[in-house]
Amino acid sequence: IISDNWQSEGAMLKVAAEYPEIKYLNFDFSSAEANALENVYAITYAANEIGYLAGVVAATKSQTGIVGGVGGVDNDGIKQFMAGYIQGAADVNPEVKVLISYVGDFQDTAKAKEISQNMINKGADVVWGCAGGAGNGVFEAVAENEGVWAIGVDTDQYVSMAAQEKLAKTLLTSGLNNVDVGVTNAVTQIIDGTAPFGTAEMLGYKDGAVGLAENDYYKANMTEDELATVKSFADKVLNGETKVVDELTQPGVFEQYYNQYGLK
After folding, report:
1. SS3 label, residue 240
2. Distance between CA 69 and CA 84 in Å, rounded?
3. Mean pLDDT, range 136-145, rounded to an integer
4. DSSP code of 262?
5. What pLDDT is attached to residue 32?
């Protein structure tokens, strides 16, 4: 039985404990400890590495040296994204300044737009929307400001926003959560009898489970030098040379990075 995300996780784990003879795949877990059942194989995706790659692109593209990140809510999960984002931006430009703010939910596009406009007013010329549906407000603000780019999250939002061309054109790239890769790999292991039930795994860039939307629009709006810069930093994550910080395993690392690079 496959559980699709954290919203159904609690119900799945309750039933999994009651039926130990049935095997379960939880492909977006929130707690490794809670998923430590012998009949459960749990996977999730390295949000910190998604943030890192988005930060690399943001700092590479920025002309002002100021970039923004709009999160849905102020919690450790979003800070996991944002700590990676700051690290990626700072690796590219050690003098970078980063603005981070939170909507308070994942639906309020008006507030996300207001936050983004405030960031743009302070000089941010790349803003990452990491706020679910509220992220559309980021794109709306960027669309009203010439010379400013947005970055999307989870899916290739340039494609998903295609029906709203004005907003789609703001999206330089997106940090991808490649659920298809994670699920395919997990199901293949289950079929082969090699799935490590009883474990919870975080899948990252080296696994192909997270990445960037490197579509034609992205390539057309990045110079060769910019593309090469992004690749050079991404390759360091791929080969293990760069270890991306993780708020979930290193509590307080977001504050550490924001205190150093945050624009107050």
Report:
1. coil
2. 11
3. 98
4. B
5. 87
Amino acid identity of 113? K
The rounded distance, in Å, linking the Cα atoms of 146 and 102 is 24
Which among 54, 48, 110, 45 has a CA at the least distance from the CA of 247?
48
From the list 81, 73, 77, the residue with the least C-alpha distance to 55 is 81
Could you give the CA distance from residue 153 to residue 130 in angstroms, rounded to a whole number? Answer: 6
CB 193 within 8 A of CB 42: no
CA atoms of 34 and 124, how far apart (whole Å)? 40
**Predicted local confidence at residue 31, as pLDDT:** 82
Contact criterion met (CB below 8 Å) for 111 and 137:
yes
Give the integer Cα–Cα distance in Å for 139 and 117: 10
Is this structure's pTM higher than 0.85?
yes
Within 10 Å of residue 249's Cβ, how many Cβ atoms?
10
From residue 139, how far is each of 87, 157, 211, 231, 255 by CA, in Å? Answer: 23, 10, 20, 25, 26
**What is the spatial distance between Cα 66 and Cα 98, in angstroms, rounded to a whole number?**
6
pLDDT higher than 80, residue 264: no
Q: Using CA atoms, how far apart are residues 28 and 190, in angstroms rounded to an integer?
A: 16
Q: What pLDDT does 112 receive? A: 98
Number of other CB atoms surrounding residue 72 within 10 Å? 24
List the structure tokens of 239: 């080969």
| pLDDT above 80 (res 144) | yes
Structure tokens at 238: 């791929």
Residue 152 pLDDT greater than 80, yes or no: yes
Mean pLDDT rounded to a whole number for the chain: 96
> Is residue 5 pLDDT above 80, yes or no?
no
Is 6's pLDDT higher than 90?
no
